[in-house]
Amino acid sequence: MKLLRVRCELATPAIVDAGPVHLDGILWAASAEHREAFRVEVPRLPVWSVTLFGETVALASALLPGHYRHQQVSLVKRRDGIDVQHLGGRLHRGLGPGKDKLRYALAIDGTLEWVVVAGRRRPVLKMLRRVLALGRDLRSGHGRVREWDVLEDPEEDLASVLVSPDSVSRRNLPPRWCSSSSAVSRGALRPPYWNQHVDIVPAGAVVRLDPAVLYEVRKGVEIAPRPRPADIRRALRDAPIQTED
Amino acid sequence: MKPTTIKLRLEALSPIVHGDIGSGKIGNAMAFRRMEIRGVPTPVISGNALGGMLRRIIWRAAFDRFGIDRTNMETKQWDRLYGSLANGGHLEKSEVATDPNRQRELRQILPPLSALGAALYSFMMAGNASFPFLFPETDLDPELLIEEVSLARHVDRGEQDPEQSGVTPMPVTIETIKTGTVFSGEILWLARPHSPAEVGCVVWALDRLAHIGGKGHVGFGRVRAEHDGDQATAAAFEEWLADQTVPAFLRALAAEL
User: Fold this and answer.
1) What is the average pLDDT across B5-23?
2) Residue pair A86/B81 in contact by the 8 Å Cβ criterion
3) Residue B191: pLDDT band with limits 50, 70, 90
4) pLDDT reported for residue B242
5) Contact at CB, A243 and B100, closer than 8 angstroms
6) pLDDT at B123 over 70
7) Helices and strands counted in chain A (H then E)
């Protein structure tokens, strides 16, 4: 069990919402793509986790967009004159030219960083390399990843994956895990993070972890058992992707 | 599994105009679009612009081959079909429910829609392809690639009185990218599966891309495109263009929109 630093170098600005970008969410998405490609239904992340007080949380930090430099990007919808020749009726306002949109995106001059606790470095890197882009508006070239890198950091305390040395939570945490915290809100503790249905102490809040959590984190438990080859073969044979009809 | 990519190089055969809506006001001059790369403002061509050009090339050719236009369809249906597919469309109401089966059917029957995506009035279809920001290939200060060009409207004072007509001289200064500049980037397919025809429509359109940016009618934005797209996929798209079942599907889709 090792503390790893995950680094991402962007090739183009990434449009991310204000909320935290959890590394286990990124890995989950990469895993889902992989399962879709091979029709394997068993999810597995190469990340360790802790289960305590009925909550399981992956030992992977979240990126706080506010901690990075942003740059302005614009999105524009234009109609060219030839379009008008093709149309039969009057111009529909909704078809453009649309409103020019200005957005703030993570600048491409820095390296994004997460920390994660994992058994080995290579499976994490292998899975991350499937992630080619991050954030929104990917179709217009935003959020392209130039390179992922995973480095071992034997010096740092494993618990720093949850809380930074200056007592700031590095990911969403269950309120019961914190003996003191400044904020509780609605959110998610596991992917998909847009499904915000439980109380959490959000990433970025000032917290003090319960001693029991610190003990368990330093021990670490794998998030899901490795599927046996026979399980995968059975999943391939018996569980095709379900459709609504 | 390696992602599907197409490496693209665009060489400017005439100055390129690509306005920047984010820049501050600089009188009547129009700034070229720039993006900060490691703190250095660098002229770029947006992926949105590239995708928009390819979208029009593909769908105008498809409508032409299928014999569908405003003269043989109900006007509103045609305009909404053209607006959504060739212009990217827009949403008129919130998406209430997503029908994955319908989306899979659309992707299978209309490969260009699958590649480019569109807002189909009541739901969004994400394009599988990501069009890149095109960055200039240069080791020099990127500002040296910028050239200011002035355009002026001259008035025939011997023929008309500007006081009466209102047609007066109107000089405009435009920032352009110098002729000979090469931009490059990589088109990337974000999602699988995708058919050869889906990749092929982009390859096919890149072979026909001769212009990008604004003010094309006065000679700006001529480009030569080089790419490493698989020509076998372009042949698959040509086959799709010859598929006689597609026009009926497009007409049915237009009635739904």
Assistant:
1) 89
2) no
3) confident
4) 96
5) yes
6) yes
7) 5, 14
Whether residue A27 lies within 8 A of chain B, CB to CB, comes out as no
* Of A77-81, B43-47, B179-183, B212-216, minimum mean pLDDT range: A77-81
Between residues A227 and B77, which one has the greater pLDDT? B77
Q: How many residue pairs bridge chain A and chain B with CB atoms within 8 Å of each other?
A: 123
CA dihedral A19, A23, A24, A28 (to 10 degrees): 90
Mutate which of A10, A12, A84 to disrupt the B interface (most B C-beta within 10 Å)? A12
Contact between B100 and B133 under an 8 Å Cβ cutoff? The reply is: no
Q: What strands, in cross-sheet order, belong to the sheet with B124-125? A: B89-91, B118-121, B124-125
Give A109 to chain B, closest Cα distance, Å: 4
| Residue in A148, A116, A113 with CA at minimum distance from that of residue A24 | A116
Q: Is B158 left (phi over 0), alpha (psi -120 to 50) or beta?
A: alpha
Burial class (CB within 10 angstroms; exposed 0-12, middle 13-18, buried 19+) of A128: buried
Bond prior to B193 in cis (omega within 30° of 0):
yes
Please report the pLDDT score of residue A235 as a whole number.
58
Low-confidence ranges of chain A (pLDDT < 70): 33-43, 79, 91-100, 181-182, 220-245
Chain A residues lying within 8 Å of B218, measured CB to CB? none
Q: How many CB atoms lie within 10 A of CB A242?
A: 7
Q: For B70-207, where are the alpha helices, taking DSSP H only?
A: 75-85, 100-109, 111-116, 162-165, 196-207
Q: Determine the Cα–Cα distance for residues A59 and A24; give it in Å rounded to an integer.
A: 8
**A85: which residues sit within 8 A by CB, 6+ positions away?**
none
* pLDDT > 90: percent of chain B: 63
Alpha helices of chain A — where are they, by DSSP H? 23-38, 81-86, 121-128, 211-219, 229-238
- The span from the CA of A66 to the CA of A77, in Å, is 28
Which residues, other chains included, contact A189 with Cβ-Cβ below 8 Å and sequence gap of 6+?
A: A55, A56, A57, A172, A173, A174, A198, A200
B126 touches chain A (CB under 8 A): yes
